[in-house]
Design a protein that fits this description.
Layout: H1 28-33, E1 49-53, E2 56-60, H2 65-68, H3 75-89, E3 94-98, H4 113-125, E4 130-133, E5 139-142, E6 145-146, E7 149-150, E8 159-163, E9 180-184, E10 191-198, E11 201-208, E12 213-220
């Protein structure tokens, strides 16, 4: 994704918080390498930000509290305050969020509850359409969720999408959860996602690297 002003959307994951010696550090190599908006909360500029393109409002959050809390102890609270203020002022039709660790994961545990507690109530309140995440290296999407419960259409909830993998790392200990409408573990080859907005319709497609269609779905705001 690209903003007309020249920004490419990038977000920090857990590996951005490592030094070359694999010690925890602020993601200084990440923020130094990319030209990113600096409209995020104090202490997290370049790691947390938003921008708009057409009728879409994009938000990038930093979910790496486990690595970053020793440097920014209130990093989730700062983001919560900023996220609410940011969503209050946008008038765009589409609201799309990116973060690394999924609020609704596909590991054998029920992890990332702190991420859910921090962000999901705000995402529900302002009806974010889609939340994209990584980390689990699977492609999975939830039903439309509100307050953790399945709702009958996307106009009333948010879809959470784990985007899969682009490299060679895979996990065999992932599984489909009750909140998933679709689940695919790309053990055989990497995958990628395309997204297209045309007016009131957002179309998402997931493809294997070889071109095979894995999944396709839409959000239709006319419904």
């Amino acid at each position: 994704m690209k903003k007309a002003g020249g920004y490419h959307a990038k977000l920090a994951g857990n590996h951005e918080y490592y030094t070359p010696e694999r010690r925890f550090s602020l993601p200084v190599f990440f923020t130094a390498q990319f030209k990113l908006p600096v409209n995020g909360p104090d202490g997290l500029k370049g790691q947390v930000y938003s921008f708009e393109y057409g009728e879409a409002h994009f938000i990038i959050l930093d979910s790496q509290e486990g690595e970053g809390a020793q440097f920014e102890p209130a990093m989730l609270d700062r983001q919560k305050t900023w996220l609410e203020e940011d969503l209050q002022i946008t008038d765009k039709k589409w609201k799309i969020v990116f973060l690394h660790r999924p609020p609704y994961n596909n590991k054998t545990d029920n992890g990332n509850e702190h991420i859910r507690r921090a962000f999901v109530p705000i995402l529900d309140k302002y009806h974010v359409d889609v939340v994209f995440s990584g980390h689990d290296h699977v492609y999975a999407r939830t039903f439309s969720l509100h307050s953790g419960l399945v709702v009958n259409n996307s106009a009333k909830g948010t879809v959470y999408v784990a985007t899969g993998r682009s490299g060679s790392k895979t996990y065999k200990d992932t599984l489909i959860k009750d909140w998933n409408e679709f689940f695919y573990n790309p053990l055989d080859e990497p995958n990628y996602i395309t997204a297209e907005i045309r007016g009131d319709i957002l179309t998402i497609k997931a493809f294997a690297q070889s071109g095979t269609l894995i999944d396709a779905w839409i959000i239709d705001k006319r419904i």
